[in-house]
Design brief:
single chain, 445 residues, alpha/beta, Gyrase A, domain 2, Four Helix Bundle (Hemerythrin (Met), subunit A), Rossmann fold, 7-stranded mixed sheet, 6-stranded mixed sheet, 15 helices, 45% helix, binds guanosine-5'-triphosphate, binds magnesium ion
Length: 445
């Protein structure tokens, strides 16, 4: 299949020391030779100028990877230029002028898949590797990328196939005296075995699924309890406006917070109270939306006021379940920074002095400790789990058919189990599935 050449900026937007542009296609070395002042060589980093006609654009490093030894399996040229967005855009425009079109999101990886450089599961793992928000998620994505997940799936498929051929040979020679006799006990044992392997694969995949989602924390509370100060302290910047006026924050704003090797979303919200101000009312309705869509809630209380009946009623009316109480401003009340266990847990802090703020990080880390067996955890997706569970259901059903001598039905269930699990590998993926997988990528990958 001859593909048009494609190009994309592979580095994030903004200013940086270096920026990278990728080009993939057939014969691109010849096509692009007029723009480089030096000849490119396979797998060599060449320091060269880039020209648009007689106009010098930048001095860059260019690496050429000849097909098929490249990420996509096609010829690839990587241009490492200065990390200035204007330079990057100018080079992209120059490439477009040469007949290289700008790539769609995930198009490089899609080509790698079509050129058998990656399996579908590995392509999905590439996207997960890029977006992994913690170290365990990285390990799990690498486990999927390195083919461990694929090996497990293949091995289960082979086991099912073995049983299928046994059962189908019985169906195909029912009247034949020499037909093989089905050893029902052995068959049952094999199916139970596969079910148990499937069970542990599902468990590991479920844990991997949890790693794939970035946890979110909404900081909720009355005006002036110190929500914005609390978030600023965690972020170590003046991200949100803080004033002594009630109702300073009017909108829900999401920030990224790194806690050790994990990234979470933390959301500053408008203070909750009864008000006639239309803007504030809209802000409060957004706070409630943030609370209900977050995995966790940090309910902040001004310690000089304490937990009021109003707070309690609010928490109850809104059915908060996964929340902690944080008593802020202990510099004024002289309470000690501490975590008080209970349901819910209470943490005493001062966003002003920073006392107790490390305890908040402890609580966040605690909630996301998963069993440290990341060796076997795969960064699975919903699609994988659904197929694994379908396969499990068919196999479970087939177990009961053995003793009923219902071999036709048994064979059918085994076939369906096999089909469900092998769909993960995507031997015959539909266009919709491919689109769903590849459009979730960033451009340039
Ligand atoms: N002494 C003391 N003052 C604090 C502390 N945290 C916040 N404040 C003060 O409390 C006031 C309100 O702080 P904000 O962070 O704006 O409170 P908020 O909950 O975001 O308020 P709204 O956005 O209006 O809902 C400001 O004057 C802060 O300086 C603290 O730990 N100790
Ligand atoms: Mg605020």
């Amino acid at each position: 299949m001859i593909n048009e050449a494609i190009c994309a900026i592979a580095t994030p937007p903004g200013t940086s020391a270096l920026g990278i542009i990728r080009v993939s296609g057939s014969n691109i070395k010849k096509l692009l030779s007029p723009i480089f002042s030096k000849r490119l060589k396979d797998r060599a980093a060449i320091l060269t100028d880039i020209y648009d006609g007689s106009e010098l654009i930048d001095n860059v490093i260019s690496i050429y990877y000849a097909s098929p030894r490249s990420y996509t399996g096609e010829d690839i040229i990587e241009i490492i230029c200065h990390g200035n967005q204007i330079i990057l855009n100018t080079i992209i425009q120059l490439l477009n002028k040469c007949g290289v079109r700008t790539a769609e999101p995930g198009e490089f990886t899609k080509r790698a898949f079509f050129n058998n450089k990656l399996s579908l599961v590995q392509a999905e793992a590439v996207a997960d590797l890029i977006s992994a928000s913690n170290k365990k998620a990285l390990t799990a994505a690498n486990n999927s990328l390195s083919g461990k997940f694929l090996n497990e799936i293949n091995s289960i498929c082979e086991d099912i196939l073995r049983i299928r051929s046994e059962v189908e040979s019985i169906i195909n020679f029912p009247e034949d005296d020499d037909a093989p006799i089905l050893n029902q006990k052995k068959l049952l044992k094999n199916i139970v075995n596969i079910l148990s392997n499937l069970e542990s694969l599902i468990n590991n995949s479920e844990q991997g699924m949890a790693l794939n989602v970035r946890p979110s924390y909404a900081v909720i509370g009355k005006p002036n309890s110190g929500k914005s100060s609390f978030i600023n302290n965690l972020l170590r910047t003046d991200a949100s406006i803080v004033t002594s006026k009630k109702g300073t924050t009017r909108d829900s704003i999401t920030y990224e917070l790194t806690v050790d090797d994990m990234v979470i979303n933390i959301i500053d919200t408008a203070g909750i109270h009864a008000t006639d101000d239309e803007i504030e009312r809209e802000g409060i309705s957004r706070s409630l939306k943030s609370a209900s869509s977050s995995d966790n809630i940090i309910y902040l209380i001004d310690d000089t006021v304490g937990l009021t009946l109003e707070d309690q009623a609010f928490i109850k009316d809104n059915n908060f379940s996964n929340y902690i109480l944080v008593f802020n401003k202990i510099d004024l009340t002289k309470n000690s920074p501490e975590i008080v266990t209970g349901a819910p847990r209470s943490v005493y802090v001062s966003a002003k002095t920073g006392d107790g703020m490390n305890l908040i990080k402890e609580v966040i880390k605690d909630s996301y400790q998963c069993a440290d067996t990341s060796e076997n955890i795969f960064l699975a997706r919903n699609r994988h789990l659904q197929h694994l569970r379908d396969g499990q259901a068919y196999l479970f059903n087939s177990k009961h058919l053995i003793n009923e001598d219902a071999f036709d039905l048994l064979a059918e269930d085994l076939r369906l189990a096999h089909l469900a699990i092998s769909a993960i590998i995507g031997q015959n993926p539909t266009e919709d599935l491919l689109n769903e997988i590849f459009t979730s990528f960033c451009i340039g990958k």
